[in-house]
Specification:
- The chain is of the alpha/beta class.
- Helix content is about 35%, strand content about 25%.
- It has a domain at about 5-145 and about 165-195 and about 250-255: Rossmann fold.
- The chain has helices at about 5-15, 15-20, 25-35, 55-65, 75-80, 120-130, 150-155, 170-180, 200-210, 225-235, and strands at about 45-50, 70-75, 90-95, 105-110, 130-145, 185-195, 245-255.
- The radius of gyration is 18 Å and the shape is globular.
């Protein structure tokens, strides 16, 4: 089961003010995706799908300064943060699985680390196909199963609850992209590991991003001190010279209509 969209939107809205301060990995992933796009592509109108604080809306505006830009996000709090910073001509609250947009309007849909929250990724692909013009590109990055495996496995030593967000397998992404009616130009998985000095730094970063545990079935209430000590002890077994690792399994895709 995927997280409830209202919970996702509320969590990211609360994190709007703190997101950019801890989003180094998110920036790196988005720039990797951006670098795979043909900069000579004719783009008259683009959509930043899941724009967050609008960082990549502003990057897209720099890449295609003469194009019209639209930024869309599920979280109203993110949009309130992004609007004054510009980059897009309009900022819209909307759902990737039911885009409030007309057919065949965009030459480029750019979506970095947003589509993993879709309950029906196939429907998100159908919506992307609907609003793209013939020849238009969908470029996305998302998260796969195995993301934050170190934290997940450490929690498993403590209790049986779901403490780490669940994501689709790479095989599921491949199958859904193959069946989308879009031409798959590239689809690849690349793990990315960041290191933290301690567990508290990791959990602070996840909360500041709005990406802490949003799973159905997650435990309610505060984590008890004894359980927290047990978690710290379990996670310390993963320690490397650089610190405590947190690995993200990132999938990138470029599809064409």
């Amino acid at each position: 089961m995927m997280p409830d969209k209202h919970a996702v939107a509320a969590s990211f809205s609360r994190a709007a003010a703190s997101y950019d301060s801890v989003a180094g990995l998110q920036r790196e992933i988005g720039h990797t995706l951006l670098e795979r796009l043909p900069m000579d592509a004719r783009v008259e109108r683009w959509l930043d799908l899941g724009c967050g604080t609008g960082y990549f809306s502003r990057e897209l505006a720099r890449c295609w300064p003469d194009a019209e830009g639209v930024a869309l996000d599920l979280a109203e709090g993110m949009l309130r943060h992004a609007r004054p910073l510009g980059g897009a001509e309009c900022f819209i609250a909307g759902d990737a699985e039911a885009l409030p947009l007309m057919d065949a309007r965009f030459d480029l849909l750019f979506s970095s680390l947003a589509l993993q929250w879709c309950e029906d990724f196939g429907q998100a692909l159908r919506e992307a196909k609907r609003v793209l013009r013939p020849g238009g590109l969908l470029a996305f990055s998302s998260l796969c199963d195995g993301t934050l495996a170190e934290l997940r496995d450490s929690w498993r030593e403590v209790d049986g609850h779901a403490h780490v967000n669940r994501f689709r397998s790479p095989q599921d992404y491949q199958l859904l992209c193959d069946n989308s009616g879009l031409q798959v130009e590239s689809l690849w998985v690349s793990p990315l590991t960041v290191h933290f000095p301690d567990l508290a730094s990791l959990t602070h970063a996840l909360k500041a991003l709005g990406a802490h545990n949003l799973n159905p079935g997650r435990p309610g209430g505060l984590t008890g001190r004894a359980r927290l000590r047990a978690l710290v002890q379990a996670y310390e077994r993963w320690r490397q010279p650089e610190g405590l690792p947190a690995t993200y399994q990132v999938i990138y895709g470029v599809l064409r209509k």
